[in-house]
Amino acid sequence: MAGKAVHDAQFWASVAGLTAALAVVAAYLAGGPRMVWVVAAVEVLLVMAHVAHRFKGRARPGTVGRDREAAHCERCRRTKEQLRSVPGH
């Protein structure tokens, strides 16, 4: 099953690359070198938006618990428990 997913990803990456190349050629034929820069800039922005959307959830890991005092990882949770067991904290 993983092989099909990889194959699909490669197929769609090829389609995107071919579409980008055709867009640049069409821009050159329609408006010259200046239009190629515009199309290239739009393509870069689209790729950046796609990457940002795809990795947005990975940038900040969620919390273990639901309250404000929840630790964001197991290590921090253990540290908070140790601090709570010390008198005066």
Structural overview:
The protein has 89 residues and is mainly alpha-helical. It has one domain (2-85). 78% of the residues lie in helices and 0% in strands. The protein has helices spanning 2-31, 33-59, 74-85. α1 packs antiparallel against α2. The chain is elongated. The relative contact order is 0.05.
Looking at this protein, list some descriptive labels.
89 residues; mainly alpha; elongated
Compile the SSE list and pairings.
Elements: H1 2-31, H2 33-59, H3 74-85
Helix pairs in contact: 1-2
Distance between the termini: 52 Å
Residue-averaged pLDDT, rounded? 81
Radius of gyration: 24 Å
Which structural class is indicated by helix and strand composition?
Answer: mainly alpha
Helicity range of the residues?
Answer: over 70%
- Whole-number total of structural domains: 1
How many helices? The count is 3
Short description:
The protein has about 90 residues and is mostly helical. It has helices at about 1-30, 35-60, 75-85. It has one domain.
